[in-house]
Amino acid sequence: MAEAYIVEAVRTAGGRRGGKLAGWHPADLGGEVLNALVDRTGIDPAAVEDVVVGCVSQGGEQAFHIGRNMVLASKLPESVPAVSIDRQCGSSQQAMQFAAQAVMSGTQDLVIAAGVESMTRVPMGSVTGLYAKAGIGEGPFSKRIQQRFGVEGFSQFTGAEMIAKKYGFTRDELDRFALESHRRAIAATEAGAFDREIVAVDVDGEPHRRDEGIRFDATLEGIGSVKTLVEGGVITAANASQICDGASGVLIANERAVKAHGLKPIARIHNLTVTAGDPVIMLEEPLPATDRALKRAGMRMEDIDLYEVNEAFAPVPLAWLRHTGADPSKLNVNGGAIALGHPLGASGTKLMATLIHALKARGKRYGLQTMCEGGGIANVTIVEAL
Where does the Thiolase N-terminal domain lie (predicted)? Predict the structure, then answer.
């Protein structure tokens, strides 16, 4: 089978809601990532054959084809096409998988996969939420869907509570996991672990290169003082991912492009998996998806050196750990979305950037990335650092 190589992987530092990146138009923010991929690899911008962009809330400033607008806001020539896709939180991970499939098939040789989400400028739910309406009708879930599943709509918050109850996770367990996310992110930041992957962008004349969401003063008591989202529940804003502005991207090439352009890959893609399951509990799908990915790759969990499991809500990676029997010390080693933020459509390639650079920094070989996605879908990508 033909190979797909990741030549470069970058991200912006996360911006808090209303924070340092709030003044950036998402097309321009994404354009900065495209520019960084070109600059760091030294490729001819015209050699890029396609740009696949993940974005969840494709309305407002992220409407009218955000992928194409990112190209137009970058140094890529207007001859470079683009496509915008939505696989909910896995949008840019799927963008990466589509790009990999393109170069593996040989139909294209050099493709950028990226993602962007300004959750400040296009708030979550303002476009794709249950009650967001456009035109005629009553929202995205038809009567037929509601009757089939016995619900009026699907909620990730409900799914997170369902997982916590199913696996018996207590509020204290979730809060301790959240605190550890901050601690790992603090340690990574202070050690300069993110320096290689972060693209600094200008904010008021100064480069923004530090994730805003990390709480350097985080304590278990402080996290425990946050109210639950529903009465009697265990999910809070403190043990769930943070609203975040950001962009990220990877440059993917096949062997022909690597040789033609004199590129030096940083990783090889070993497996591309996507599965779907129960849309009501919704967030549990990374568990069976991981099983399938490992089986298809002919690998065991013991073969994987590091894992990135998106911290949409603390019960998700905790359930994943219990199901897989994976080593907690290898999970989200530089912190996760609880501390660093979850810029929806950008999180897929954001996590991949962090995973690859963490593998290389530790001299490790194999990494696995997965995340839960709206509608009960999950992507899994297995890579080998080079």
Answer: 5-255
pLDDT (average), residues 332-360: 98
Region of 57 (left: φ > 0; alpha: ψ -120 to 50; beta: rest) is: beta
Name the average pLDDT for the chain: 96
- Residues 35-74: b if buried by 16+ CB within 10 A, e if exposed: bbbbeebebebebbbbbbbbbbbbbebbeebbbbbbbebb
DSSP class of residue 291 equals: H
Alpha-carbon distance of 112 to 71, in angstroms, equals 11
pLDDT band at 134 (very low <50, low <70, confident <90, very high): low
pLDDT at 285: 98
* Pairing of β 5-12 and β 198-199: parallel
Q: CA gyration radius for the chain?
A: 20
Cβ contacts of residue 115 below 8 Å, gap of 6+? 30, 53, 54, 55, 91, 92, 95, 247, 248, 249, 343, 345, 346, 347, 348, 349, 350
Catalytic residue among 55, 182, 270, 372: 372
DSSP state at residue 386: -
H/E segment holding residue 173: helix 171-190
Q: How far is CA 171 from the centre of its chain?
A: 25
Q: CA-CA distance, 156 to 145, in Å (whole number)? A: 17
Residue 139 is predicted with a pLDDT of 80
Cβ atoms of 96 and 356 within 8 Å: the answer is no
CA torsion 285→287→292→295, rounded to 10°?
Answer: 170
Question: Is 89 assigned a catalytic role?
Answer: yes
Of these residues, 55, 89, 182, 357, which one is catalytic?
89
Structure tokens of 193? 């672990």
What is the Cα–Cα distance from 382 to 352, expressed in whole angstroms? 10
Residues 208, 270, 342, 357: which is the catalytic one? 342
Q: Give the helix, strand, coil percentages of the chain, each rounded to 5.
A: 40, 20, 40
User: Residue 163: its pLDDT value, please?
Assistant: 98
pLDDT tens profile 197-244 = 999 999 999 999 999 999 999 999 999 999 999 899 999 999 999 999
Q: Residues 174-192: what's their mean pLDDT?
A: 98
pLDDT at 131 over 70: no
> Are the C-beta atoms of residues 241 and 342 closer than 8 Å to each other?
yes
